[in-house]
Amino acid sequence: MLCLFMDKKLWTSCNALFSRFLNKACIIQDPEKDIACDGSASDPWSLCTIEQVEELKAIIKVIPLWSSGIMVSINIGGSFGILQAKSLNRHITSHFEVPAGSFSVVLVITIFIWLSLYDRAIIPLASKLIGKPVRISAKRRMGIGLGFSLLHFSTAAIVETTRRRRAIKEGHVNDVHAVLNMSGMWLVPQLFLAGMAEAFNAIGQNEFYYTEFPSTMSSIASCLFGLGMAAGSALSSLIFSTVEHVTSRGGKEGWILDNINKGRYDKYYWVLALLNAVNILYYLVCSWAYGPTHDQLSKLSDENTSNEKP
User: Fold this and answer.
1) Which tens digit of pLDDT belongs to each residue from 263-308?
2) What residues does each domain of the chain span?
3) 115 — phi, psi (to 5°)?
4) How many CA atoms lie within 13 A of 192 on its CB side?
5) Sequence-distant contacts of 13-19: CB under 8 A, at least 24 apart
6) Distance from C-alpha of 39 to C-alpha of 60, rounded to nearest angstrom
7) What is the pLDDT of the chain when averaged over all its residues?
8) Three-state SS for 181?
9) pLDDT digit string (tens) for 167-219?
10) Domain topology for 51-290
11) pTM here?
12) For residue 266, how many other CB atoms are within 10 A of its CB?
């Protein structure tokens, strides 16, 4: 089945067949009935313009790649970083303690610093070293973001395993308000990775939509990432409820408990990491099926034109 799906010729034929099916929406069957006196369609639901059909094709074509970015939004919705931070030693100095809710600032700062360095330092330096303009394509940036998302949840699971073992060792299993002899700075790596995931995937998605959609669809392009964040929040709630229901069946104590020291939030993070790993495979298939982007086609056309010149 997978071999049939990955057959390029078969996939191209299916795309062409689907495209012809959508094209029927703009074919005039009876000019007297379908066209009004002013030249417009008598029934817009029965006869569409070519532009409307092409816009629908563009939306349908990007939906699989768009859906692959939903998992990145779970980085925020599915995180229990505040509960972890409350149980850790958050003192930087003897007189200053970082609030538990302020650790998420690391994520925002990471996005800001990376985007500043990417445009102003990393890309110019790489171009100078290689000797030609360097640019990471939008699809590749989306994929890199998914990779960072996987690393984020894997790191979060490892940190939570370490934190829970420390809580058990220090005898704070039943003490919800206990502060462990473990620095809150342990949370920084996972928040940094979450920020990198957002920086790569979010910017890559927005750039991808703007380049792939026609100019008339700029408003839709600007809304798609926000729609993905909303879908990520809904998916996060669904995963949370499912894990809580499955692990607490039969009267057992589930993974998700009010007492973070007794719960198994580390296993919950591993579930999210596994889902992210599957999502990366899904993204690779969607990226392959999508084919070359407009930028890649334009670059290939320019190269062919330059090669034809004497």
Assistant:
1) 888 999 999 999 999 999 999 998 888 887 776 666 655 555 555 5
2) 51-290
3) -65, -35
4) 8
5) 19/57
6) 28
7) 81
8) coil
9) 888 888 888 788 888 888 898 999 999 999 988 998 888 888 888 888 778 88
10) Growth Hormone; Chain: A; (1.20.1250)
11) 0.84
12) 18
